[in-house]
Amino acid sequence: MLNQSEKIKVMIVDDSVLVRKYLSNIFFELGMDVVATASDGKIALQKMELYNPDVIILDIEMPEMNGIEFLKHLKEKRQDKVPYVIVFSSLVEDGSEVAIEALNNGATELIKKPDGPLSENLLSLKEEFKIKIEELYNYRRLKEVKVEEKKYSVFYGIDNLKLILNKRPIHPEIIAIGSSTGGPVAIRKVLQKVRYLPVPVIIAQHMPAGFTKEFAKNLATYFSRKIVEVSHNEILENGVIYICPGGKHARVLKSSSGFVYYEDTNNYEDIYFKPSVDILFQSLRESGCRDVLAIILTGMGRDGARESVNLRKTGAFVIAQDEESSAVWGMPGNAVKLGGVDIVLNIDEIGEAINLIFSH
After folding, report:
1. Which of 18, 182, 202, 272 could bond 298 through an S-S bridge, CB–CB 3.0 to 4.6 Å?
2. 232 is catalytic
3. Both 123 and 167 in a single domain?
4. pLDDT > 90 in the chain, percent
5. Which of 54, 59, 278, 303 is an active site residue?
6. What's the whole-number mean pLDDT along residues 18-24?
7. Which residues of 12-40 are buried (b: 16+ CB within 10 A; e: fewer)?
8. Residue 195: what are its φ and ψ, rounded to 5°?
9. Would you tell me how many other CB atoms lie within 10 Å of the CB of residue 121?
10. Same structural domain for residues 213 and 297?
11. H/E element holding 334?
12. What is the CATH number of the domain that holds 74?
């Protein structure tokens, strides 16, 4: 699968000796390097510092420190090169509370442990891990390609937004939000400050297929606003918050009847995460919508950065979450570096910024 110099470093965290053994054999056959194993999250945190794995395979139910607690500790490290974490647990079901909590705390992918003996499911597991990890590896390799970075001026803080609005009134027709690691919590913090919402909101949060519907339901329990997973060919209504389905790319077209969402089921070689923020932003730009309020929240990688530059050139106003309040300052940070951002705000300021824009 990979040559020797490209071997992916894997750490397996599971309290079952048998599971660690079977998974180690699978990754050996796939040409990957199992650099460490651990029986609980506490040991895994110690070994992570020593072995610097690219991918962590994580169980949920473990002694000392369970998988969710481990994810919370990992998120606190606040570094751009956080390992990809694939949760491998019998508790992972589409839309389950544990699955949503794992994704909320930064898990990248989820694989359900087979109901029967692991030994009887090795071939199917091998194929599933192969597909997921190769996709992650290809995405990581593309992400690490150096891009030309120039010095761009950008404003910081809510006070500077007030100055901008005095010189340049902004009248968005739609709000488009992109996020990844740490995004579910960040999205809640933004929405809880928003008082007035006269336009539709479309959110591309990196999540696997089968989980965004439950995420939308979970988010709706915190607010009186209508929050739903958007459906193919749905016309977006003002004041409604739409979550793009996981496992599919999202496009929004501006038509005579308003904004229309449609699914893009194509696979793009240079884009791993579905829904992709870049593709969402690109669709708005290509449909001729100039009055977009684009917001890039916490997340690893560069998704959204390239198209934030292009959106901004066509007249959109782009807000990025600041490094201090981001779980991972990859997506917003790269957008800033590429010159795709008008203003950088703390997560506690972004909801208030939306209020200011619509009341000005």
Report:
1. 182
2. no
3. no
4. 66
5. 303
6. 96
7. bbbbeeebbebbbebbeebebebbbbbbb
8. -100, -35
9. 15
10. yes
11. helix 331-337
12. 3.40.50.2300
Does the pLDDT of residue 307 top 50, yes or no?
yes
Classify residue 149: in a domain, yes or no.
no
| 199 and 118 belong to one structural domain | no
Q: Which of 14, 39, 40, 206 is catalytic?
A: 206
pLDDT at 16 > cutoff 90? yes
Q: Which of 39, 180, 325, 326 is catalytic?
A: 180
On whether residue 148 sits in a domain, the answer given is no
In a domain? residue 274 = yes
pLDDT of amino acid 269: 75
| Of 152 and 133, the one with more pLDDT | 133
| Spatial CB neighbours of 207, under 8 Å, sequence gap ≥ 6 | 103, 215, 246
Provide the pLDDT for residue 147. 47
**Amino acid in the structure at residue 61:** E
303 is catalytic: yes
Look at the block and give the residue holding tokens 């506490």.
Answer: 42
CA distance between the termini of the chain? 56
Q: Are residues 160 and 307 in the same domain?
A: yes
Asked if 26 and 81 sit in the same domain, the reply is: yes
Q: Is residue 268 part of a domain?
A: yes
Distance CA 55, CA 74 (A): 13
Residue 161, pLDDT score: 97
